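Hi all, posting the design record for the shared folder.

TITLE: backbone redesign
STEP: 1 of 1
STRUCTURE INPUT:
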């Protein structure tokens, strides 16, 4: 074993980028991580070969001196004694058995980096091509993110540096080859034919390697809420990870056995528990619905709200608090709604609702609707939606986006309403956490009574204090277009899922990536189904990959479609 004394290394702390742990929320101790070394031939040289020298302590492993190509003046050759007195000196730390799992990266996702370090090592850094990207306690595994072909191909030189309390260091390096397909490329697409008289996906959430989809099926004159888990190949039929169920099977509410239920939003917590929210129609009246399921799909509890309520968005905080965005009806004929936010504990304990409305709307003339929930990096929660505002100049009502920031169990701390800076109407239908705070999307439109004024996709980036983090982006499309899903990938790009009307082709399903208001649009998908009918993206969730769902017209009927692409 080569033990090497190194001068203190300047550390750039970037622990926020990577955190020790195991994929899918499992304990590292229970992961049975492979100790197979990354591909490397001892004694070979050149990039990609996992270069080693005669001082290597294992396949593909380099000591700090071998890595730098120089050992003069730094290698401890005194046998652990002081050259001047012969007394024992402080030996430097050591590191060995550096390995990565998987040894080669053929798909985006986390790589677990493991190693052994001497007992006196107290801190470790993970470096990617010489740049510190994470810091943690010595001996704890690191997670290295393989995020895209352009970033990771053809491979990465990974190094771990450990240090002791005196600042002495030891270093080992390994090369992980990478062959990742391009961002936006398809992993799988599943169209659900013969899925009732018609069907449609409406919401999606990532669940480790799997994806959860929620939607509706029309069968025997009943709208059936349906929950499905797709495995990593896009299959839910006859697979150990996949399953499907409809609300009449899981509900314990007698009125829902024969009532209609649609699911509008999904979230998955750190333990794999699933929360689905939507709106039921019971005896012709809307009622909000919230259900919590175990990771296998078994119902834990459900809530059917009172008459005149709706639920459209949800998110789960780190402590398990479940935020639900929707509305409460305050007038009928025509219906008028106030925006409402409910919070539930994992045990079903309820907090709220917090009601947001125009305080000057004493006659209940203007509506506000909650549409989306985003749990932010700080732990605060953004609830986004759309409200009506009255203009005393034109004596007209306009639609405007609205965002509320919460902390704890529903304490509202900030609020923001769009000024209509892009067009006189704008809406928010989707929200997601972003490095800047929160990203929002919907549509903007000028005076609706002019046929030439088509809705266009509008994207906004706000900080957690709801200040403008980036200029808004108005995406020009051939005809009418609306964003129904938004997310951010592991590299910080904004991914947009939209429905775009393209002349004679009807509605088409679009997914694309942007950085800001001025960056080029990078098209990931423009899907016009085989029937050339109405094809729509209605939900999107992103991390390493992006899962999406919606509907595709097949022989004149809408059918549920679900897919996974590389983010």
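Okay, here is what came back for every position:
SEQUENCE:
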């Amino acid at each position: 074993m080569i033990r090497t004394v190194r001068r203190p290394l300047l550390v750039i702390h970037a622990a926020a980028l990577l955190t020790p742990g195991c994929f899918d929320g499992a304990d590292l101790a229970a992961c049975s991580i492979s100790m197979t070394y990354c591909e490397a031939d001892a004694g070979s040289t050149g990039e990609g070969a996992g270069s080693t020298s005669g001082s290597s302590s294992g396949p593909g492993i380099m000591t700090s001196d071998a890595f730098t190509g120089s050992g003069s003046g730094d290698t401890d050759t005194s046998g652990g004694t002081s050259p001047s007195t012969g007394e024992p000196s402080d030996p430097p730390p050591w590191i060995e058995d550096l390995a990565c799992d998987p040894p080669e990266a053929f798909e985006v996702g986390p790589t677990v980096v493991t190693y052994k370090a001497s007992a006196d090592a107290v801190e470790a850094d993970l470096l990617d091509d010489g740049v510190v990207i994470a810091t943690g306690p010595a001996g704890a595994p690191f997670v290295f993110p393989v995020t895209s072909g352009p970033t990771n191909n053809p491979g990465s030189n990974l190094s771990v540096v450990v240090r002791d309390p005196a600042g002495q260091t030891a270093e080992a390096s390994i090369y992980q080859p990478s062959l990742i397909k391009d961002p936006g490329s398809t992993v799988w697409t599943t169209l659900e034919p013969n899925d009732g008289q018609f069907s449609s996906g409406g919401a999606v959430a990532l669940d480790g390697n799997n994806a959860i989809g929620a939607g509706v099926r029309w069968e025997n004159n009943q709208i059936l809420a349906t929950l499905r888990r797709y495995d990593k190949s896009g299959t839910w039929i006859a697979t150990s990870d996949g399953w499907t169920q409809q609300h009449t099977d899981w509900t314990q509410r007698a009125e829902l056995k024969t009532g209609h239920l649609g699911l509008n939003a999904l979230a998955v917590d750190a333990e794999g528990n699933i929360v689905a929210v939507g709106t039921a129609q019971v005896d012709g009246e809307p009622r909000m619905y919230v259900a919590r399921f175990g990771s296998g799909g078994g119902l834990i509890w459900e809530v059917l709200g009172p008459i005149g309520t709706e639920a459209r968005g949800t998110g789960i905080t780190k402590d398990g608090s479940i935020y639900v965005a929707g509305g409460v009806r305050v007038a009928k004929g025509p219906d008028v709604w106030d925006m409402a936010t409910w919070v539930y504990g994992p045990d079903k304990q309820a907090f709220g609702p917090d009601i947001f409305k125009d305080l000057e709307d004493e006659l209940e003339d203007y509506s506000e609707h909650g549409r989306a929930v985003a749990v932010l990096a700080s732990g605060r929660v953004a609830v986004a939606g759309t409200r009506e505002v009255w203009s005393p100049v034109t004596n007209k009502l306009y639609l405007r986006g609205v965002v509320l920031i919460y902390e704890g169990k529903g304490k509202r701390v900030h609020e923001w309403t769009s000024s209509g800076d892009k067009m006189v109407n704008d809406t928010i239908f989707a929200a997601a956490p972003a490095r800047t705070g929160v990203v929002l999307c919907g549509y903007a439109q000028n005076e609706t009574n002019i046929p030439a004024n088509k809705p266009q996709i509008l994207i906004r980036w706000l900080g957690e204090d709801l200040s403008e983090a980036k200029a808004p982006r108005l995406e020009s499309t051939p005809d009418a277009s609306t964003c129904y899903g938004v997310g951010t990938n592991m590299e910080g790009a904004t991914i947009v899922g939209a429905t775009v009307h393209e002349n004679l082709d009807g509605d088409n399903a679009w997914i694309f990536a942007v950085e800001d208001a001025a960056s080029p649009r990078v098209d990931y998908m423009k899907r016009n189904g085989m029937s050339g009918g109405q094809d729509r993206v209605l939900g999107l969730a992103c991390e390493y990959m992006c899962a999406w769902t919606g509907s595709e017209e097949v022989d004149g009927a809408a059918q549920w479609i679900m897919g996974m692409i590389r983010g």
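COMMENT: The two ends are 42 Å apart (CA to CA).
Let me know if anyone wants the other runs.
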